[in-house]
Amino acid sequence: MQQIDNTSTPDIDTEVSSVLQHARRAQLILVIGNKNYSSWSMRPWVAMTAFDIPFKEIRILLDQPDTTNRIAEYSLAGRVPVLIDGDLTVWDSLAICEYVAEQHPDKKLWPQNVVARARARSICAEMHGSFSSLRSSMSMDIRASHPGAGRTPQTQGDIGRISEIWEECLSQYGHHQFLFGEFSIADAYFAPVVMRFQTYGVFLAPALQAYMERVLAHPAVTRWVQEAMAETEVLPDHK
Ligand SMILES: N[C@@H](CCC(=O)N[C@@H](CS)C(=O)NCC(=O)O)C(=O)O
User: Fold this and answer.
1) Which of 14, 85, 176, 219 has the most Cβ atoms closer than 10 angstroms to its Cβ?
2) Domain range for residue 154?
3) Same-domain status, 100 and 15
């Protein structure tokens, strides 16, 4: 009697599913704006680059006659960044960071400790929803240098709150490295703030200044900055 070996099916399934998963992951596309100006694009780009998550980049120039239509090809929300993973579209910088962190739990994009992770998510949410004065008076413009500009009482308040967040995280969790020790989404989230502080000559306490230097020296941030420097478009302010 012929024996049917059905033990191989799960192996084939596993192999096929891992190949499919790989192929799917290889197709990640991140749609971003100009590197010099698009602070929201910088966050997931830096996080994905820092954690070696491969993606193809599509750059859409902001403030052009066709910008709205070009973004609409990827997302009806009308904003970059947008992540495309096969049939799935994820828009909004924080949702993208959460999605890639979930897809790559082994890479530890968030701090591993539950309390630190809750804290990291809180400060990212605060960055995402607040600091409107800083965003409008000190818009990201990596190539520019405007020391002393943009100092309104409201931006001073924002700078004070950001200093407080960094100080607390670095002393409680960071041990003089990144906000939660190892580089995490939280550092990627505040990287555009570091760029603004550099452009507008904001000087903080030595420990915070040293943190900014470490962020600026991180290979993912350095790469973004080099590519921003190589861009030639000049745009009005962006938030
Ligand atoms: N909350 C959104 C904000 C995204 C956003 O405002 N992006 C700007 C560029 S930095 C944009 O797409 N603007 C559209 C335009 O200028 O036409 C996020 O976190 O992704």
Assistant:
1) 85
2) 110-230
3) yes
Residues 14 and 92 in one domain: yes
Of 64, 78, 170, which is closest to residue 116 (Cα–Cα)? Answer: 170
Residues with CB under 6 A from ligand 1: 33, 38-41, 62, 67-68, 79-81, 92-94, 128, 238
CA 205, CA 203: separation in Å to the nearest integer? 7
Residues 157 and 62 in one domain: no
The answer to whether residue 66 is domain-embedded is: yes
Classified as helix, coil or strand, 46 is helix
Atom 18 of ligand 1, nearest CA residue: 92
- The closest residue, in CA terms, to atom 11 on ligand 1 is 79
pLDDT digit string (tens) for the chain, length 239 residues: 334 343 344 454 555 555 545 555 558 999 999 999 999 999 999 999 999 999 999 999 999 999 999 999 999 999 999 999 999 999 999 999 999 999 999 999 999 999 999 999 999 999 999 999 999 999 999 999 999 999 999 999 999 999 999 999 999 997 779 999 999 999 999 999 999 999 999 999 999 999 999 999 999 999 999 999 999 999 976 55
Neighbours of 196 (CB within 10 A): 24
**Closest protein CA for atom 13 of ligand 1:** 79
Domain count, the chain: 2
Residue labelled with tokens 């990144």: 178
